[in-house]
Design a protein that fits this description.
Length: 318
Amino acid sequence: MVDERTMRALEEKVAELRRLVEEDGVDLRDELTLLEQRLQALRREYYAGLSDWDRVRLARRPDRPRGLTLVQAVCEDFYELRGDRIGGDDPALRGGLARLGGKAVTVLFHHRGTSPEEQRACRSGMALPTGYRKAVRIMEIAARLKLPLITFIDTPGAYPGVEAEAANIAGAIAKSIATMLSLPVPTVAVILGEGGSGGAVALAAADRVLMLENATYTVISPEGAAAILWKDAAAAPQAAQALALSAPRLLELGVIDEVIPEPLGGAHVDPEGTAQAVRDAVLRHLSELEGLPLDERRKLRYNRYRNAGNRGAGAPTG
């Protein structure tokens, strides 16, 4: 069985040989070609057998495409709307107007930040009630302007601090879910990395829910589940398996509608290709939804969430 340490050692060897060939002019091209072929074969073997815990680790990689950068790669002409018109703005949950395939849409997304300072300001994508109230405001704009809503989800969960509890985070999340479920426009959600707890569900109550291949979607983190059930956070890999949080398993259960393939090695290997795959999938599902009458879309949405988790319940029909 191939392990990550073996792959890393081979990657380092390939990088060293490539440097010798490119910088020092050493004639090791044949050896380099053979090693690159072996590395590619090992990668295919390794990534074909990923555990759910392996996917958790991939979903959490800091170099994974996410947030504003990915939204700007998927959409054109993004114009941000700020503030909840009540208490302020939250950089952890952002959104606004954009174009997708030449059509006007509304977008919402978690933003985890790129620099350490921005990550602290965004609380690594964990939004406050202000963020979810802003999301509701943008959802209502989508309904008023009759624009489809696209959401991009990447959060460990809503912010769990005293400040959030004092401002009624549970109520803000509930309002976001209820508003999204009642929208008269087509809605598509894409889980990019971590889809954690109610903080993720607040943006994922869509007509169609898509996931990148190595994203996760779960009610609680593996570490949290392990601490509760096994009294030991070190049991996180076992908890991840029990939670069935990976995209392939959630597709089998009917919780999501499509797994968007990632490049071999993960989305971070080819961010541009990943963005294009997300764009293509969203456009395809939007086209299908826009071809359905409003009453049928609402009926399908109702049935989807009444039967969430049943095998095949989330599969698109018609």
